[in-house]
Amino acid sequence: MIAELTRTATDILADERARFVAEHPRSVAMAKAAAGVWRGGAPMHWMNDWASPSPIFAAQGVGAQVTDVDGKLYDDFCLGDTPSMFGHADASVAAAVADQIKRGAGFMLPTASAVIVGKLLAERFGLPLWQTATTASDANRAAIRWVRAVTGRPVVLVFDGCYHGMVDDAFVVLKDGASVMKPGLLGQVHDLTTTTRVVPFNDLAALEAALAPGDVAAVLAEPVMTNCGMILPEPGFHDALRALTRDAGTLLVIDETHTISTGPGGYTRAFDLEPDVFVLGKAVAGGVPAAVWGVTAELSARMDAAQARIGPGQSGIGTTLSGNALAMAAMRAMLSEVMTEAAYARMLAGAERLVAGLKGVIAARRLPWSVVHVGARVELVFADPPPKTAAAMRKALDHTAVEALHLWLINRGVLIAPFHNMMLVSPVTDDAAIDRLVAAVDGFAVAMGDA
Predict the structure, then answer these.
(1) Is 406:50 a contact under the CB 8 Å cutoff?
(2) Do 92 and 343 touch, CB atoms closer than 8 A?
(3) Which of 5, 80, 85 has the alpha carbon at shortest distance from 50?
(4) What confidence category does residue 419 fall into, taking pLDDT thresholds of 50, 70 and 90?
(5) Does the pTM of the predicted model rise above 0.70?
(6) Is residue 291 a contact partner of residue 321, using CB atoms and an 8 Å limit?
(7) What is its cofactor (predicted)?
(8) Taking the C-alpha atoms of 48, 53, 55 and 57 in order, what is their torsion angle to the nearest 10 degrees?
(9) C-alpha of 248 from chain center
(10) Residue ranges of E strands in 124-215
(11) Contact 283, 266 (CB under 8 A)
């Protein structure tokens, strides 16, 4: 089946590329101009990772829709790959940011909003003490430095296929059962496998064996694997993960940057996880670069002790822009006015509609596909049943079919996350947009069958 899909997907891609170029003259022209001033033709290289022959140049985003420079309107189910999960140009965030920028963006000093944001974070996520960062990558780096300082242990354990931003320690995968650095990793002069251990998600026996030497400072984990195709935890996995880490004297860092789609308190509150460190980025400031990480009171005390033991000097943790006034204003608006119970109720209802629609297409067309979701985050997987490990997901992933689907959707006015078949439903995504997405996927399935 995969070989057949790849052949037909190649045919579809050729047609859809020609259609894109014909219908997006201004984006194509801007891409050519950008190539003269931006290496790779875009301000950030992953802006070229969309399935379109050249980047779509955005003009504006309002609610759950984006308009490009060619005047084309898109139903946006990518939402900036999460930062705009609650919709573009939210009025509350826009007002807060506009007010703060007139009074200064950053002072390297706390503001009154910082106190309020800290209280809101503690109330929402359950951990009492917090720090800020500019991105979730920075927050994860800080957490890793601290857990090593506190425990005196060198090793961090991650799950195969994980995503924790630009964290060097997480760029390790399994290949033929052995830990290796990720293919394509640039400029890395240290062997990351000496201080990073990697095991398959959902494999408790492998996890227990990896913790057994007693040298693992922390497990860094997404509650649900979200970047290699979505992989849900098996029943009891998180309870066992927490028990095994405690028995091994290993700290647990939960990165909720993607799984905040689960509910107002993330996957952690919805499923009563008990992390020592909680990391959140992207959506927390509504698209303004910001992240936060919280710790338990017990871990905070151990951090104080480690700092006293190490003595004065430069910790190497933190950046000048972290916790700036603009980010604090945006987070205050998000936590108090946007990321509400009512907003999540709308998101979750929309996601259920999307899941039902996609499953209907799969059943009607008798496709070997499946749908996985966590809260408002939905993944269409070209395999049935959905794989339970990253290794199995890699075998099932048909890159050509994924690219063909993405470009098919783009040409029909729908955006989903460019890296895999991930779709986000926002509180302002209407039913008609969901139905258009489902209809477009159905059309793709028909085209694949007819090609």
Answers:
(1) yes
(2) no
(3) 80
(4) confident
(5) yes
(6) no
(7) pyridoxal 5'-phosphate
(8) 180
(9) 29
(10) 129-133, 155-159, 172-175, 178-181, 196-199
(11) no
> Which has the closest alpha carbon to 361: 254, 437, 262?
437
Tokens of 345: 């109720």
Write down the residue that tokens 């251990």 correspond to. 197
Residue 93 CA to residue 96 CA, distance in Å, equals 5
pLDDT of 4 > 80? The answer is no
Per-residue pLDDT of 350-404, as tens digits, reads 999 999 999 999 999 999 999 999 999 999 999 999 999 999 999 888 889 999 9
Domains identified in the chain and CATH numbers: 2-86+340-450 (3.90.1150.10), 91-338 (3.40.640.10)
DSSP-derived 3-state class of residue 68: strand
Q: 223: which residues sit within 8 A by CB, 6+ positions away?
A: 233, 238, 254, 256, 259, 262, 266, 267, 268, 271, 273, 374
* Residue-by-residue DSSP string for 333-392: HIIIIIS-HHHHHHHHHHHHHHHHHHHHHHHHHT-S-EEEEETTEEEEESSSSPPSSHHH
At 144, the amino acid letter reads I
- Which among 374, 397, 369 has a CA at the least distance from the CA of 384? 369
Which amino acid does the sequence have at 35? A
Of the candidates 434, 431, 438, 428, the residue with the CA atom closest to the CA atom of residue 87: 428
Q: Are 77 and 416 in contact (CB under 8 A)?
A: yes
| Spatial contact of 272 and 247, defined as CB atoms under 8 Å apart | no
Q: Are the C-beta atoms of residues 266 and 260 closer than 8 Å to each other? A: yes
DSSP-based three-state secondary structure for 250: coil
H or E element, residue 445: helix 431-450
Residues comprising the chain, all counted: 451
Which tokens sit at 220?
């860094």
